[in-house]
Design a protein that fits this description.
mainly alpha; three-stranded antiparallel sheet; Arc Repressor Mutant, subunit A; homodimer; DNA-binding
DNA sequence: TTGAACTTTCAGTATTTAATGAAAACATGA
DNA sequence: TCATGTTTTCATTAAATACTGAAAGTTCAA
């Protein structure tokens, strides 16, 4: 059996478990959220077998979700000298994490929505009255709102943490 | 059979179908997203049977998702004089929709996450060195970040569309 | 090359989530 | 009260998604 865990590891286990549960109820699969939580709180990079053991998941599952997290840009592969296997470490800076997630969600969620809205608005260009016109306007409004939101998000994502903070403080002020 | 659809209804059907597909890949079930899209573009309030027919879904499914949308605050029940059954209409103002969704997601996604972070930070208060301290700091940072985000979101949600726009424009410069 | 260490794939299975449809519950006016 | 129109519930079924484990693939040092 494994050695007794230091005290903080209890809290860590809670974090990993709960984060997994939360993740699944906002569209991220449980294992992926758990691996991310685990690596986010790992003092050192971890390899696949450590992760498998700690979370009690299969190799296939661990591998798939590690690749997925790499794809999101939330973790990266680290190679250790003289070792063949891959280690993984998470981005730990909260601001950087936020930016990464915001960009990725924009790409996955907003970009395709925008395509739909544009297409629907375009198809109804020529509606000049009544319900057809209302529909056209609704699509345009949604489209413009999403485009605007994307611009704001791009701007924020390009800011340093400190200046974003300052800017937000002025708002809250 | 039903009468031929006016031209704009073609675009509407596309909107409904695609919105459903999108919804399901960001954590909202397909029928719910479709009903919302349908009502958002409805010239008049609709009743359950119209929705069932238009989307080809069962009564149970329609009912469940209508209630869910009412729960989100995205649609409301409308009663017509001299009619017994309930009609539904969606909030159409984009800014208002945005605020409603933001509030609800905060309640469902951020609030529980915050609980976890607070609990984990608290449990490791007394860690003074090494990995335990790092963990504690990580939890604190996450907690503070989420709390800050929530404040910003509350502030924005309390603004009128016009002033939010103005404020955002200043950011975009 | 060979084979050991490691990674990826994928068919099969398990789990979770959503949808159906019929029965039960509820409301209303006669 | 009863008959009728309407909504809700829920056991069952269907569909989507996640996970496993073993086999195939890859890499690299000897």
């Amino acid at each position: 059996m494994s050695a007794a865990l230091p005290n903080w590891e209890k809290a860590r286990d809670e974090f990993v478990a709960q984060w997994g549960a939360l993740g699944s109820h906002w569209g991220i699969n449980r294992t992926m959220a758990q691996i991310h939580a685990l690596l986010m709180t790992a003092p050192e990079p971890m390899h696949t077998d450590e992760i498998m053991e700690r979370l009690r998941v299969s190799r296939g599952n661990a591998n798939t979700n590690l690749r997925e997290l790499v794809g999101w840009g939330l973790i990266r592969v680290v190679l250790k000298k003289g070792e063949r296997r891959e280690y993984f470490e998470a981005e730990k800076d909260v601001w950087q994490m936020f930016i990464t997630i915001a960009k990725e969600r924009k790409r996955r969620e907003l970009d395709p929505a925008l395509m739909v809205l544009r297409s629907c608005a375009e198809q109804t260009q020529s509606e000049k009255t009544g319900a057809g016109l209302d529909f056209h306007r609704q699509m345009r409004e949604l489209q413009e709102f999403v485009e605007f939101g994307m611009k704001v998000s791009d701007t924020v994502a390009s800011m340093k943490h400190a200046s974003a903070l300052q800017w937000a403080m002025r708002l809250l002020g």
